[in-house]
Amino acid sequence: MKRCAELRDLSEDHHHALVLARRCERAAAGGDVTAAWEDATRRFAAELAPHFAAEERGLLPALRAAGEAVAAQRIEREHDALRAACAPGAPRDAAALAGFGRALAAHVRHEEREVFQRAQACLDAAALAAVAAARAAAPVRRLGCYST
Question: Which CATH architecture group holds 5-136?
């Protein structure tokens, strides 16, 4: 199913999150783990945390209102786990970095493949507009290109 206009900004955020997830997994397998964690936590604060907040303000209430409370609860649990992984004091070793990358990728794929498909099918125009407005108001800051 083609992505509706109201969800495109969230989907674009997801693309950047998948790039981050891949970089984390690669670094954990043999790169500079400390630098990768520094980059991941910076990008989390600038890009992912505002994205999560926008979903929690716009998408999740709309899903609940449309009878998709289970999907909304799963997203909240995953957001909480990803926040915890980037929180001060969380483990910063290669295993934790790989786990963060895998969890982030799985979360994004679930939203793109399942949740957004359902949202497009069950949310009305007003609800989708509210989701788009929540994302438009989010202070997502792109930190620039990833170096290879």
Answer: Up-down Bundle (1.20)
Using CA atoms, how far apart are residues 82 and 119, in angstroms rounded to an integer? Answer: 22
Query: What is the tens place of the pLDDT at every residue in 113-147?
Result: 999 999 999 999 999 999 999 999 999 998 876 54
Residue segments in the chain with a per-residue pLDDT below the cut of 50: 147-148
Residue type at 19? Answer: V
CB 100 within 8 A of CB 82: yes
Q: How far is it, in rounded angstroms, from Cα 116 to Cα 7?
A: 8
pTM of the predicted model over 0.90: yes
Q: Which long-range contacts (CB under 8 A, 24 or more apart) does 17-22 make?
A: 17/47, 17/48, 17/51, 17/104, 17/105, 17/107, 17/108, 18/104, 18/105, 18/108, 19/146, 20/47, 20/48, 20/101, 20/104, 20/146, 21/100, 21/101, 21/102, 21/104, 21/105, 21/108, 22/101, 22/105
